[in-house]
UniProtKB/TrEMBL annotation:
Its EC number is 1.6.5.11. Belongs to the complex I 24 kDa subunit family. Residues 19-30, 272-293 have a biased composition (Polar residues). Its cofactor is [2Fe-2S] cluster. Residues 7-17, 31-42 have a biased composition (Basic and acidic residues). Residues 1-54, 260-317 are annotated as: Disordered. The gene is nuoE. This is NADH-quinone oxidoreductase subunit NuoE. It comes from the Bacteria. The keyword Iron-sulfur applies. Keywords: 2Fe-2S, Iron, Iron-sulfur, Metal-binding, Oxidoreductase. GO terms for molecular function: 2 iron, 2 sulfur cluster binding; metal ion binding; NADH dehydrogenase activity.
Length: 317
């Protein structure tokens, strides 16, 4: 009999018996696992994890408590600065989108502009307006690194330490700033002026190493220029980004990200010579991109050539 053919009755019987035993063992294991997890859950202190509460006759209610290692901070002062005016602005943001829940990202930026971080009250407000669960809002707020779960300083200073920026000195800049400011990564200075964070790529490799202050670029930085920059920020001096506007506070920048302009969009250049190098060469050489009509024509010519080639191939056969 072929090795791929039907198995004998004895083999089938053995497999069936073995399968039943495996299912029994698996069911026992699953039951034990559920008991173990239930007992472990009872030992977790309230406020350190996501909890679902159910009272007799009531639906489950999600309380968005998260671990200290990266969740929303519920351990501090829970007073909120969210007012009815804030809620109205949240509704305005939601009204911009055909599907209201698509507004969650800018809504969370608005919450941060008011609260200085993502707060429980902000989560609840977004969930209520969008008619989704607080768990869904919390999932987004704890996924993206631009949403902060603990109070931020007046200015957010980010140092790129990825690939080219690291090679060009980004790691040294971050290390020197940590020593200069007396803080570690994602920590805030005692005066509340600066929160320092290492950032992943800022899409500005042509100006490496780069820093960002409240999401505005500072190009070709050095340890000395970086320390001078944070000193000026701590002294509340006026600072202008390399390619962008004068520096506002982090909260003000968050309001802009929520879709409320501050009138500074046209301040300063938006790109530098390194970014424009390709365009400069094209202009010097007289190169131009094809127009849509030319592209369509070229595409049709290519299709005609393909068809002619295919026909010739058939004739050769």
């Amino acid at each position: 009999m072929s090795p791929r053919g039907p198995r004998s009755k004895d083999a089938r019987r053995d497999a069936d018996t073995s399968g039943k035993a495996s299912l029994t063992d698996e069911a026992t294991s699953v039951t034990k696992d559920k008991v173990d997890r239930s007992e472990a859950a009872e030992k977790v202190p309230t406020g350190t994890r996501a909890e679902v509460h159910a009272e007799p006759g009531h639906q489950h209610h999600f309380t968005s408590h998260f671990a200290d290692s990266g969740g929303v901070d519920f351990t501090g002062d829970q007073e909120t600065a969210i007012t009815e005016e804030t809620r109205e602005e949240l509704r305005q943001i939601a009204a911009r989108y055909p599907q209201a829940r698509s507004a969650l990202l800018p809504m969370l930026h608005l919450v941060q502009s008011v609260e200085g971080r993502v707060t429980p009250a902000g989560i609840e407000a977004c969930a209520e307006i969008l008619e989704i669960s607080p768990a869904q809002v919390s999932g987004v707020a704890t996924f993206y690194t631009m949403y902060k779960r603990k109070p931020m300083g007046k200015h957010h200073v980010g140092v790129c330490t990825t690939a080219l920026c690291a090679v060009m000195g980004g790691d040294q800049i971050l290390s020197d700033l940590q020593d200069h400011l007396g803080v570690g990564n994602d920590e805030t200075t005692e005066d509340g002026q600066i929160t320092l964070e290492h950032l992943e790529c800022n899409a500005a490799c042509d100006f490496a190493p780069v820093m960002m202050v409240n999401w505005e670029f500072f190009d070709n930085m050095t340890p000395d220029s970086a320390k001078d920059l944070v000193d000026r920020l701590q002294a509340d001096e006026e600072v202008t980004s390399t390619r962008g506007a004068r520096i506002c506070s982090w909260r003000d920048a968050e309001r802009v990200l929520a879709g409320f302009p501050d009138g500074r969009a046209d301040e300063g250049p938006t790109s530098g010579p390194a970014s424009q190098l390709g365009l400069t060469i094209a202009q010097e050489q007289g190169w131009q991109a094809p127009t849509p009509t030319e592209q369509d024509g070229a595409g049709q010519e290519g299709a005609d050539a393909d068809q002619a080639g295919a026909k010739a191939g058939q004739e050769d056969k």
